[in-house]
Structure of Receptor kinase-like protein Xa21:
Amino acid sequence: MQLQYLYLSTNNLSRTIPDALGNCESLEDIKLDQNFLVGSIPASLGNIRNLDVLNMSRNQLSGSIPKSFGDLQFLEQLDLSFNHLEGEVPENGIFKNATAIHIDGNRWFCGGPQVLHLPACSITHASSSTKKKGLIVLKVVIPLASTVSLVAVIAVLSLLYKKRQKRKFMTIPSFGRSFPKVSYNVLARATNGFSASNLIGNGKYSSVYKSECFQDGNMVAIKVFSLNTRGAQKSFITECNALRNLRHRNLVPILTACSSIDSDGNDFKALVYEFMPRGDLHKVLYSNGGDENSSNLNHITLGERLSIVVDVADALEYLHHNSQGSMVHCDLKPSNILLDENMTAHVGDFGLATFKVDPTALSLGDSNSTSSIAIKGTIGYVAPEYAGGGEVSTAADVYSFGVVLLEIFIRKRPTDHMFKDELSIVSFTEMNFPDRVLEIVDSQLLEELILGLETQTSINEKIVQCLTFVLNIGLYCTKTSPNERISMQEVATKLHGIKDAYLRRN
């Protein structure tokens, strides 16, 4: 059988769960919650090795939890709350992760890992005479203490339940069968225990490691989230939700995701991407410790720069206008643009991405508003309207793209020391546009323009025109008012035309 998802929630189903369900080995997600199912949970469900999510809450199930559930390597969410279950809780696998299981509202559980704070099973198996003696002592000797303790336990359990319910929906979305399963142990081995020698990048919420020994031997980048950092969990879920619905040649290709526990029983979450050998655009632009005036900086030709901005524009056009509901990236910058061996650009890091609810509002030139959630973009690339509490919008992505475009051709960071007071990379470009374009572009471009010419004053007029057109698009993208900015559809169309004209010239 090839059944992958079984959703039968809230259907008034009754009777027992058939043992034959365990024969559906391709199942990844089972939801039977809010029915009237009775009897015990079939141990055969432990045979479904690819199972990610199992929800049987709010039924009338009885008996104990099958020990085989602890052997399900890829099980990420288990909800058995509000049944009539009892007995010993397994100690291995998902049961080590207190935030991934929900067993509230049952008769009596014991044992299990220490993180669940359940009583030892020996207490539940004590003789009836021992229980009676203990009960008499409690009633006669410490009635007040027991009452206070009961109130305290109820309060703590209530808080824990609310917390778990809140985190219940913070589980990894299913990526489908096309994405391979991967465990913590596999990723740990592939990175030599996440050693510093494999570290290729650090961010606020994560660290990125390279690996040469993942599955078929291809090089990959493994993004490990720092779950102790506030917001990292949300960033992981946001990126998962974004990437499972997106497919485009200019987005960083994701291979799989891992939501598990590490060797110490702590939550572990990671994303595995195709490795980009040329690194990120920021390192390519400023590979000498931030000295953008150095003559030893990586050489990037005019053609390569045009290709990069076209690639990024195509990616944003897809996010804004062609995906299933428009998406705002919210943090476009050179370090989030990765380059493969052919210098093809791929936009990555969707940890702050926001989905647009109303796709009918995609008229050209409007601000394409989404919601007024807080933005945590990067200084220098954030649209000015966000400073006043403006709404998340695709127009803000357009602004960030415009800054990145100007940076690529001028080769100065928007946070460069020269940009202070009222001077920014945008106003700097405006002041020198169009008559002094050659005075502000990267000196490497000037060297390329005069190469092979008889005199340095004979710079080809068409090349100057190409640079002027490109910088003009950057200025249109960075208009102060969101409504004055052009859409990414128009940006992509114009840049393709400029690139094609440049290639025809050569």
The chain has three domains: 5-125, 184-274, 281-505. The longest strand covers residues 206-214. The longest helix spans residues 143-168.
